[in-house]
Here is the input.
Amino acid sequence: MARALYIHWPYCLAKCPYCDFNSHVRVGVDHARWKTALVNDLRYEASQTVYQEPLTSIFFGGGTPSLMLPSLVDGLLREAEGIWGFASDVEITLEANPSSVEATKFADLSAAGINRVSLGVQSLRDDALRFLGRLHDAREALGAIETARKFFERLSVDLIYARPDQTGADWANELDEVLALGTDHLSLYQLTIEPATRFATDVRRGVFDPLDNDRAADLFALTRDMTEAAGLPAYEISNHARPGQESRHNLTYWRYQDYVGIGPGAHGRRSGIATVRHRKPENYLAAIADRNHAVTEARELDRAEMASEALLMGLRLREGIDIQSLASRFGVKPDALIDETKASLYTDLGLVWRKAGCMGVTAEGMPLLDALLGELVCGELVAS
Ligand code: SF4
Here is the structure.
């Protein structure tokens, strides 16, 4: 059984206009106070869990965790190792921005135990980086990739495509350059306009128009074809890897296994309980100082909810889901999980595949994933 730990660092140097993550810009972050708070959060979570298995993956996400002091990262890893222990092949990922300043920390982060970095490159085009509000340029990104290679066993690069007016030829050229870098993992996200972001305001005011759905779908298909041909097939709707180089941490979520989530706004799943913590950094710190934990909700999920969540996560994966084993896992009837009439319809349309009790969404269906999930997953899962 995989056992994962997520640690959220809530700060960034600036807020990107497309971002709806729990990220905040503050001056004068008190790292010592954060160390105390996060260590207490870890200990609180340990007091609530009875896990015997060592951790198989840890993920520092954010925000911009590459802004953390390496000594803080080290302190948290030693604490987690002392509590749960690490599997011999533990994957320890940290999200990093590719600025030259942050790249200077890579040696120390590696010494602390980070063995995989996810670099938020986002584009290799300076005009696109300016549009996306990024603080680095393409030259710095390439430099950070080179430095990361020296210090970390594994490297993933994040890119944002389907930008306004981006053509297939533009994207093919850029993706070609990225593939030529030879990294083993790519997270390739389409630009989406999230509510309450600056881009949402810009679109409302007519500053720019998002790429239309048909062109975005064409770029999605192009992305699948190019990454597949380069030996990094999609294993999830937006994630591509050489076989064996998939993100073990993210697979824990998508395969619906337990994970501990600490830090502001972090979600967790432990033995059927969904945990949520204070989102705002100040509220999080105050709660920990006050009562030694920052959990705002620890809700027991019923079997139907868990089965539904597991379906929604699993159908993102190329490997799909095994309906029978999912039904047994949550004690529900297989025919209560999936709307069979609709599943047959979408299978005939080539958007869904079925094979020996397993089911998944085809490459053609993936651009329509959200709509398909709404159609396929039974609204009312009936306990057997
Ligand atoms: S660096 Fe990442 S987390 Fe921070 S604002 Fe930009 S997109 Fe959001």
Summary: The chain is about 40% helix and 20% strand.
